[in-house]
Amino acid sequence: MPEDLPRAGPAVTARPLYQQVHDHLLGRIVAGEWLPGDYLPSEQRLAASLGVALGTVRRALDELVQAGVVERRQGRGTAVLRHSSDRARFRFFRLVGPDGARIVPTGRVLAARARAARAEEARALGLAPAAPVLALTRERRAAGRVVVHETIALPLPLFARLDVPVGQDLAEELYVLYQRDCGITVARAEDRISPEAASAAVARSLGVAPGMPILRIRRIAFGLDGVAVEHRVSRAARLDYAVAIE
Fold first, then answer.
1. What Å distances lie between residue 219 and 19, 24, 154, 189, CA to CA?
2. For residue range 197-240, what is the model confidence (pLDDT) as tens digits?
3. Which domains, from first to last, does the chain contain?
4. Which of 5, 18, 80, 154 is 20 to 30 Å from the Cα of 162, by its Cα?
5. What is the reported pLDDT for 91?
6. pLDDT for position 5
7. CB-based contacts of 46: which residues, under 8 Å, 6+ apart?
8. Which residues, in sequence order, are CB contacts of 83 under 8 Å at separation 6+?
């Protein structure tokens, strides 16, 4: 028998069938039925099991592809997206040089410790005041100099298994480690950019004078289920923030 899809309320507020299929498939991915790198059943099998038209499944999968949840692999099928460092940098790293050239930075975590969430972090992550977080301090380098200084807060115990080497250049991007160590896939992020005067500590890290105007980029990153999983503040000097709107 076909699987039951969640039913909406009155017809005037009913979600289109392809969105119900989208939510159903996403729920199974979030629940761990299909892990990063796993292939979903074929579109034909999904359509038959759900009792919907093939076009409905394809449209639902299109939405999941656009959201960065799954990817289509030519001749092989549709798989749950597994983060790679190159993919994470291309999708989530928006800073470029003054000439507009793309930067490929390396990262080094300087400190990792559990502490109470600060007020801004708790609000962004939907946590109780002073809830425990794993706090990371990281520098990102390009062409031999620090170009970004970051403070990152991750809710505990969600990230208790995160294994980040301190004081070493990271071989992988953090979002790869989140997925590998903790089963947390960052699906999207919201950045807010504002000017700021460099504090003494940040100025030392970036090699600029204290009080110099710098970029402050506050990021809230969300998992597949739409829950906020990361609060990040990146500070950069001599760089621009660039994003393509299509």
1. 28, 28, 12, 7
2. 999 999 999 999 999 999 999 999 999 889 999 999 999 999 99
3. 11-80 (1.10.10.10), 85-241 (3.40.1410.10)
4. 80
5. 81
6. 65
7. 21, 25, 40, 57
8. 36, 173, 175, 176, 178, 179, 185, 186
Distances (CA, A) of 220 to 71, 109, 124, 215, 226: 23, 19, 7, 16, 11
Nearest alpha carbon to residue 179 among 139, 230, 134: 230
Q: How many residues does the chain have?
A: 246
Q: Please, what is the Cα angle at 83 between 45 and 192, to 5 degrees? A: 115
Q: Show the tokens assigned to 98.
A: 């003054």
Q: 4 vs 13, 48, 78, 110, 187, CA distance in Å?
A: 19, 12, 22, 49, 26
Task: Quickly tell me which residue has 């970029």 as its tokens.
Answer: 215
> How far is Cα 46 from Cα 17, in angstroms, rounded to an integer?
14
